[in-house]
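Exam prep: given the inputs below (a chain plus iron/sulfur cluster), describe the expected output before reading on.
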Amino acid sequence: MSYGAISIPAVRALSRGAKLSGCWFNTGEGGLSPYHLEGGCDLVFQIGTAKYGVRNPDGSLSEERLREIAVIPQIKMFEIKLSQGAKPGKGGILPGSKVTDEIAKIRGIPKGEDSISPNRHPEISNFSELLSFINRIRDITGKPVGFKIAVGAHGWLEEMCDMIHQCGTTCAPDFITIDGGDGGTGAAPMPLMDSVGLPIKAALPKVVDILQQHGLRNRIKVIASGKLINPSETAWAFCAGADLVTSARGFMLAMGCIQALKCNKNTCPTGITTHNKRLQQGLNPTEKAVRIKNFVHKIHYGSGLIAHACGVPHPRALRRSHCQIVQANTQPVPLDELYPYQETLPDYRPSTSQKTPQETEMDL
Ligand SMILES: Cc1cc2nc3c(=O)[nH]c(=O)nc-3n(C[C@H](O)[C@H](O)[C@H](O)COP(=O)(O)O)c2cc1C
Ligand code: SF4
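Solution:
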């Protein structure tokens, strides 16, 4: 979630909370602010279609600016945003009322004017150009680079995998973030949010299977998002084949979001998505950072509990055979029957340093 879409105290709370809980924080497409760095957490820098924070005045990529960002040690990797589940096929809009002096400076855009990002990266119209762009960013930054997408049509990933094999697996993205088609933000058009893009439950196993079939499953990490905000959902994602799980709304709820869905109106009553100083007063970054830490730890604890109940030492050792999906006719079908695939992932062995759920609970 970008600084711009969310407020200064919200970015501060997330930065501090991420540091406390040992998770990363994604800048969103709005560029890097001092508030992201403040807590000392690891950061993923997102490059959106408007290249906010790393753009030339004409909207193209500024390699010079990208180099300056890449040398910041807290920035651990770069995510090229192709699309997000809330509005596949559409760019973002930050209303002029939210484009303050500081946001304009950080993003590299005029103050007070609606900030509209294109619906796609102008330099990417096919997979060859996507791979070139990924490798250009990786060469400049020296850090891992992947992309984020909400999955719709099929066929594209197979085509991309074939192309990766043609140019060699070193040219592959280091990760793909799969966003569920019902991904959040109160600023998204309802018809897109509700009906366009596959839900994560359908998209994630499909993507994992295609990578597997093309022998790229261990080369490309898979990150999943889309309402994966409680331990049973995150455990499902690991069973389906995710390496990592990420969330926006889970953290908004942890900061006190009441789902008033006024995120684009600058009148958020909880101070999360408004730049109105009076409304921000209720959001104390120090206090909310602890809530964020508690949320992450509860997710870790709960996912660990499910993993241990299934007889594996860690949530990432969960496999499809551990999960059954109850169908509309009440009959459970094992996930590995719904989506059979040959597993080649590392076999996680119990380690003596592995914390038990009880030990983890004591840390909370
Ligand atoms: C306020 C807000 C701002 C967001 N900004 C971005 C963004 O800048 N870039 C992006 O890729 N996704 C953005 N998202 C989408 C989330 O990253 C995520 O993909 C989506 O909300 C699904 O995850 P969730 O169900 O855990 O929220 C935003 C979501 C929210 C709620
Ligand atoms: S309280 Fe409402 S306006 Fe504020 S972040 Fe939550 S959904 Fe958006």
